[in-house]
Amino acid sequence: MIIPWLADNWEQLFFGGFCLAVFIQLIYHLYFFTRVGNYKKKEKSRSQTHPVSVIICARDHADQLMRNLPGVLVQKFSTTHEVIVVNHNSQDDTQYLLEEFKKTFKDLKIVNLKQDALGIPGKKYPLSVGIKESKFEVLLLTDADCVPASEFWLEKMQEGYDENIEIVLGYGGYHKKKGLLNKLIRFETFHTALQYLSYALAGIPYMGVGRNLSYKKSLFFKNKGFSSLNHLPGGDDDLFINKVANKHNTTVVIDPDAFTYSEPKKKFGEWFNQKKRHYSTAKYYKPLHKFLLGTYSVSHFFIYPLFIAALFFTPWIWVVSVMGTRIIIQSVVYGRAMKKLNEKDLFGYWLIFDLWMFIYYLIFAPALWRKPTKNWN
Fold first, then answer.
1. Which of 47, 91, 245, 275 is such that its CA lies 20 to 30 A from the CA of 252?
2. For position 320, what pLDDT does the model report?
3. pLDDT the model gives residue 4
4. For the purposes of burial, counting CB atoms within 10 Å of the CB of 290, is it exposed (0-12), middle (13-18) or buried (19 or more)?
């Protein structure tokens, strides 16, 4: 009965499928993504300042450390803290540069590693060593190519903790530069942050980014560190958080002073390789997270093909009305979220980039099935 009906009414399938894709997208935007734009810092009845260990892993990052490390070392923070830089077998001037910084900044602690860990690719080994060498319970992680947005980054991030919180997720953006590639990179970063921050606010945390991430040292050791992830090149940030985060122990900090910024790639090929490494870990997420992320991506991917197909077989006023509703709601959600994440200049391009996401999925979806590469720097 179903097959003959489909044969006689296949034109209606395009419009029906288009409406379903739009409906799914609106659910995500109205239930999840509005939470970023509507975010307000919770008022605490009791405030506490926590000692913090900042940890940065570096491998041949002398140039990046020269530009960015001072921004970490000059943080205004009233409580004891330390900045640990793990120099992982660098062959450039990283060690000498760090020794020069140490002469001025006594809170800097240098950990020099002269070898790799057999069978543990990626950044997990040096990061584990840095965590073991840290003195304080609250850990704040960033990368050598990142710089805090302000002198209050450390203070703002640690304010996310209370008696129940063990993980604080922050936003790691990219410097604004001229050119289309810069805007594409920043929009993709915004789009990813819109998801992981809003999911966390909805009580379904699934990842964090190592450019701006904090968790407790006891949580790391309670879960045996990265032992279950050691065979994977990546996962020191997103997979670890995917494993240990829940609605009770995770919060977010969305404050322009608490952001970090990195230098974006200047060539599409470099960005492509970077994103391939990132997406290669998504296959290891928990089933619920894969379902939610997959449903969103599939519905997003089919929006425009189904829109075009429906225009050929359905009165255009119906199709345009449905698409117009989606565009209006999405523009409001994106506009508010971009303002919160200090990406307002992208708002005028969001519809173009939304169209670009169709191509983006075609390019990067195969990375979900590829074997990850082993280098991390």
1. 275
2. 95
3. 58
4. middle
- Model confidence at 228, pLDDT cuts 50, 70, 90, reads confident
Shared-domain flag, residues 229 and 205: yes
The residue from 280, 312, 345 where one domain ends is: 280
Length of the chain, in residues: 377
DSSP string, 223-262: TTTTGGGTTSSS-TTHHHHHHH--TTTEEE---GGG-EEE
Q: How many domains does the chain have?
A: 2
The SS3 assignment for 120 reads: coil
Q: What Rg do the C-alpha atoms of the chain give, in angstroms?
A: 22
Domain that holds residue 294: 10-38+288-368
Instruction: Cite the beta strand spans of the chain per DSSP E.
Output: 52-58, 81-88, 108-113, 138-143, 146-148, 167-169, 172-174, 213-216, 250-252, 260-262
Please check whether residue 234 is in contact with residue 122, taking contact to mean a CB–CB distance below 8 angstroms. Answer: yes
Residues 273, 327, single domain; the answer is no
Q: Specify the residue for token string 């921050």.
A: 197
Q: What is the b/e burial string over 101-122, where b = at least 16 CB atoms within 10 angstroms of the residue's CB?
A: beeeeeebbbbebeeeeeebbb
| Model pTM score | 0.91
Q: What is the pLDDT of residues 279-312, one digit of tens each?
A: 667 788 999 999 999 999 999 999 999 999 999 8
> 3-state DSSP call for residue 55?
strand
Angstrom distance (rounded) from CA 277 to CA 195: 19
Kindly state the percentage of the chain with pLDDT values over 90: 69
Same domain for 314 and 242, yes or no, is: no
Tens digits of residue pLDDT in 97-116: 999 999 999 899 999 998 77
The sign of the CA dihedral 65, 233, 364, 256 is: negative
Residue 268 has pLDDT above 70, yes or no: yes
- Residues 34 and 88 occupy one common structural domain: no
